[in-house]
Design goal:
mainly alpha; two-stranded antiparallel ribbon; 4 strands; 73% helix; two-stranded parallel ribbon; 558 residues; 27 helices
Length: 558
């Protein structure tokens, strides 16, 4: 039996936390300094994590290696499966030839302005995908769509990663927040009420970032000229999204927050573009290396073709709505719980003497990957039955063949994700992650300022805000309860801070970088250099916000 310790290195928590950072530092040095490929960097970091676990944290080598296999299994299914199905789902529209009509639709709505189109796709449509699927699906799908507009690969990668911050907290039908409530249920006694309160607090944090994200996107896409030309529609979309996000999280079903906010944002953009015409369209198209907008380019796009181009996304909304909101309990009954060999049954315990999560959940039907597969097959069938007299050639065989091609295309990204999850499980089960968290939580009155850092680190490692809450929600809650300086502050604030820390950390997670890399064919290291300053800037802003909300702005919180 192995039980994790908080301070195994010379009995010193600070030194133990410093040693626990070695795998993370190794990964980023390999990725940014050595400029190795992501899967090579992940291999080296995994080796470092195992060595730290065995030598520094006194974990038997066999248990460390088996822990890595459980992480690999989770990385392969459901994570890799979800991502591949998301990419394939879009490939169905490409194979059918309908993706060109989808591009023309956004072209019509945006008046030919690529900046407006990209903002709608990355922010509004990506937010909808995040709300329904999460786990990297919106990055994979929207990156491909934005590239089709003519956006350069590096800008496309940065655009989708930055846009993906706004909806992450309520992503996958608010799974991160629900997880936070469940992780402290043994203390609060009511997981649902805690999750609702956390969702409401996040509703006073996330919208403050969301309102500015569309404006930042047009700056990324076209610099000062983009800011000048598109400031009005950008803030129309951002403000509508933010207000809806706040209202839904505080006064409606928080699980549907991003679904409704994304739809409202897109409707607001479509309506606004009816009365406002973009400026400098030909100029921006010239800067993007595209020909001037011609009337004939979109004049042949009738209502029928527009509807058919949007059909897959209407289908995916219906499928996810039914599965996530209608029959989730029925689908969950098909989950297979597998006690992971060797390490389950008390062979590994956390520092608190509990099972750290050695049961693997094989959720064949309840995973978003299966829902995307079903939605994709239905879409392919609809396209097969509606070829408009052969104009759009589509067969079920071609759609199924594309599944294999997608998995092959993403093989190295899939390997990276599997290795990164192996790394996360070794760090978690050996006690490395909790040592880092415990060290940060012992900071007294400045804890509110650094609290979001835990979620940021957790998501940067695992690629999942849900996982970050699973790792640190209990720690955040207990640290706040035990801290004399925070007796008048609701500990739920720090569950929200952990969730929001994951939001701004999502863009630098190896999983997100790998997805963006395969979609845009840009090296992970190059994407990392672009996105890291944004992530750090957002984190600093969040830390200041939480610090204020724990003191002078506490009165505004629900």
């Amino acid at each position: 039996m192995f039980q994790a310790l908080l301070d195994p290195v010379a009995g010193n928590l600070g030194l133990s936390a410093l040693v626990a950072c070695i795998p993370l530092v190794t990964f980023f040095i390999m990725l940014l300094g050595v400029k190795a490929k992501a899967h090579i960097s992940a291999v080296v970091a995994l080796v470092a994590a195992v060595l730290v676990a065995v030598i520094g944290f006194q974990m038997p080598a066999g248990l460390a290696l088996v822990a890595a296999t459980q992480g690999a299994a989770f990385g392969a299914f459901p994570i890799v499966f979800i991502i591949c199905m998301a990419v394939w789902f879009y490939e169905v529209t490409v194979v059918s030839g309908r993706s060109e009509d989808l591009r023309k639709f956004f072209d019509q709505v945006g008046g030919g302005d690529i900046r407006i189109q990209a903002m709608m796709i990355a922010f509004c449509f990506g937010g909808l995908l995040e709300a329904l699927a999460g786990f990297g699906a919106p990055i994979a799908v929207t990156a491909t769509m934005i590239l089709a507009l003519g956006v350069k690969p590096k800008k496309a990668a940065l655009t989708v990663l930055l846009a993906n911050t706004a909806p992450v907290a309520y992503g996958a039908v608010a799974t991160p927040i629900t997880t936070a409530g469940n992780m402290v249920a043994s203390v609060t006694g009511d997981a649902a009420a805690t999750a609702q309160h956390v969702a409401a607090i996040v509703g006073y944090q996330a919208p403050l970032f969301a309102v500015f994200v569309p404006f930042l996107l047009v700056i990324i896409l076209d610099g000062k000229q983009g800011a000048k030309d598109c400031v009005v529609p950008a803030f129309v979309v951002g403000i509508c999204f933010a207000i809806t996000q706040w209202w839904c999280s505080n006064h409606f079903a928080y699980e549907l927050t991003d679904v409704i906010a994304s739809l409202v944002g897109m409707i607001a953009c479509v309506a606004f573009m009816k009365v406002w015409k973009p400026k400098g369209v030909d100029g921006v198209r010239e800067r993007f290396g595209l020909p001037p907008l011609a009337e004939s380019e979109s004049s042949d796009l009738n209502a029928s073709r527009t509807f058919m181009a949007l059909v897959p996304y209407l289908i995916v909304v219906v499928v996810f709505g039914i599965c996530k909101l209608g029959i989730p309990d029925i689908l969950a009954q098909t989950d297979i719980k597998i006690a992971w060999p060797i390490i389950s049954g008390g062979a590994i315990l956390s520092a608190a003497g509990k099972d750290p999560g050695t049961t693997f959940n094989l959720n064949l039907l309840s995973t978003p990957g299966t829902m995307l597969l079903v939605a994709g097959l239905i879409s392919a069938l609809v396209y097969t039955l509606n070829t408009e007299n052969g104009r759009y050639k589509m067969t079920m065989g071609a759609a199924i063949k594309a599944i294999g091609a997608t998995f092959y295309k993403m093989r190295f990204s899939a390997l990276t994700i599997v290795l990164v999850l192996s790394l996360a499980y070794v760090m978690n089960f050996s006690g490395q992650t909790i040592s880092i968290g415990e060290f940060l939580s012992g900071s007294g009155s400045i804890f509110p300022v650094i609290s979001p850092t835990l979620g940021w680190v957790g998501t940067a490692v695992t690629g999942s805000d849900t996982s970050a809450n699973a790792l640190f929600a209990g720690l955040q809650y207990s640290a706040a309860m035990a801290n004399p300086a925070l007796q008048n502050v609701s500990p739920d604030l720090f569950l929200a801070a952990n969730t929001m820390g994951g939001v701004v950390g999502k863009m630098i997670s190896p999983q997100s970088l790998a997805i963006a890399a395969v979609a845009t064919q840009v090296r992970e290291a190059d994407i990392m250099k672009q996105v890291l300053p944004w992530s750090v800037a957002f984190l600093i802003g969040l830390c200041v916000l939480v610090g204020l909300q724990s003191t002078v702005l506490a009165f505004v919180l629900p």
